[in-house]
Amino acid sequence: MYVLEFILLYIISTIVTSRIYNELIRKISYRVKFSFAKKGYLLNCDPIIDKKKRTYVGLLALISKLFKYVPFVNILGALILTQETIKTYESGKILDKDKFYLSEESRNKFIKSNNFLEKSVIIDVATVDMGIMYFASQFKTSVIVNGILSLNGQLCPLAYTLDEIRLMAKYLNTSFTLGKINGVSVALIGARIFRNIKTFDNDIYEIINDFKTDASFKVYLIDEESLTDKDIDALILMIRENRYKQRNKKANNDYSLNKEFKLEKRI
User: Fold this and answer.
1) Whole-number Cα distances in Å, 134 to 38, 94, 105, 106, 150
2) What share of the chain has pLDDT > 70, as a percent?
3) Structural domain of residue 226, as residue ranges?
4) C-alpha to C-alpha distance for 66 and 81, rounded to whole angstroms
């Protein structure tokens, strides 16, 4: 009788604890992300981890699986594996380029929340944003992904004038958009945008159509992936040559005016 009760209790305990074990194992990846989210960022890829530590965690994972159906030992094994996995990731070498910083709003929500599900949702949303941002960063020129502007491929920073922007747009046979980001004038050549749009840096690209003729702009190409580096170099060279001609023209005009002035003085 006692043997049957023991076997029944063991079976029930095994079923219950193995389910808890599965849930703990499933949450390990989130627990790792949580540890970095507390610091304000997520990782685009795994850190550079010492080979011995990686082997150690792999061995723990194997042992944990072996004891999956041993009541309570399985739970203890899952908890130990979780803690050691977090420690191993935190001890790895992390490059700045691999960090994806959470927005201030997301970070505050994460820190204030004590609910695993709420934290998971915040991390999931941030992970999607991180994936979209990585996808957008692979483009040589700026793109709009999911209604968010990713600024890539800034032209050589020459403080372009409005006339030069028109000249480049004509050269590429495309339209352009003028606006500002944090007070800085920015032109997008390759697309016409009619409303303010958010950037991946959580700034706002504010559409502005009224600029002074002597205004200067940062310039980004948008949706111009077909352009080669040679095409872009030719575009910049065209502007430089145009400036050179303008300077020479101005210098010649100034020289002529000075010459006429001297002649007038002599007369």
Assistant:
1) 22, 17, 21, 19, 10
2) 88
3) 145-264
4) 13
